[in-house]
Amino acid sequence: MESALSGGFQLPSVEWIDIYMALMITDECINCDVCEPECPNQAIYLGPEIYEIDPSKCTECVGHFDEPQCVQVCPVACIPVHPGHVETKETLFQKYQRLQQAG
Ligand code: SF4
Ligand code: SF4
What we know:
Blueprint (H helix, E strand, L loop, with lengths): L13 H4 L1 E5 L20 E3 L4 E3 L15 H5 L7 E8 H14 L1
Antiparallel strand pairs: 1-4, 2-3
Bound molecules: iron/sulfur cluster (SF4) (2 copies).
């Protein structure tokens, strides 16, 4: 029987490890203002040069929507996941609950 490592090191699929992350906006942002009002957590704000996302408020829209709303509307696709903020769906939901309680 072929072992999981026989053909080289295999990373588990994203679905299996259930990894989520806060999102970030790259410098390809054209400041079109479209994403900011779509964020249910008020996590998006205009920074010194481009729009930015506060990772402490971004839940990937968990608790509100099935898909990240900012990603859905961004015309230049400049909102990838933030590699420095790896979270599980459960911790994102806990963040959502904290934000709801904070009002
Ligand atoms: S993914 Fe959702 S919560 Fe995060 S910044 Fe985008 S719209 Fe806001
Ligand atoms: S929708 Fe995209 S391009 Fe427009 S402000 Fe937001 S991140 Fe920038």
